[in-house]
Target: Ig-like domain repeat protein
Amino acid sequence: MRSPLARFLLTGFGAAALIAGPASPIASADSPGIPVVTSVAYGNPDVLTVDWAGVPPALRVWGDARVTTTNGTSTDTVTSILTDSGSPRSRKSYRAGVCAPACFGSGATVTYGPWNHPSIPTSVNAAPPSLTATSGTKASPGVHITVTPGAQAGAPVFLIYNVNAVIGRVGPGNLSFVDTNPFLPQGSYSVQACYADCDQPEWPYWGDSYKPQSARSAVVKAYVANTAQCKTIGKMLYAFGQNWRNACKP
Model:
């Protein structure tokens, strides 16, 4: 559970500093340097090794790509509690910084060091994965989606979109997903391979060329009950166990 100070960092200057991007080093010979996350051992939790560059513990700040920040780390090793909570999990990017003149009060600013990004294979630039989307039956409702990784077979996570919103994620151990509420918005599905920071797939790394996601697949439309005809004739056919799909074509 975050302390009030940590919550303040998240909702106040921490988020503002992330939006503004990395600032210039503090221009004072007496000031501490800029901390750097030198390595990350990925697991559950992740373990970060940080070169704090002489920054006092009370001025230390670190965070991940979820725009989440905490502070006050007294050692050179950080056990991350800011892990990707999705299932399956993806790796995350981390960075560390220094507060000036302090981590609270008016005029507080944060200067961050560079991101420590997970390693991404060159296959991220290859052809995207693909999917099939098929309407269910009365006994098994929803839109049934199956992902085919193709050239992205090494990805730990595949993000499934309905129009432009991520509605689910699957991993190589189970490439099937059921959209149990396909009606809002219309069932237009696509998929993207994700190698890191998968809980923020569209997060732009300001001034950073890091690209942990592949291109998205072509859009596939499933039979969904989003028309007046489908909601009347299709619903009646469905109730009697008849073939309702022709009444519900997108």
Observations:
- Confidence is low (pLDDT under 50) at residues 1-30.
- The helical segments are 4-11, 13-20, 228-239.
- The longest strand covers residues 94-100.
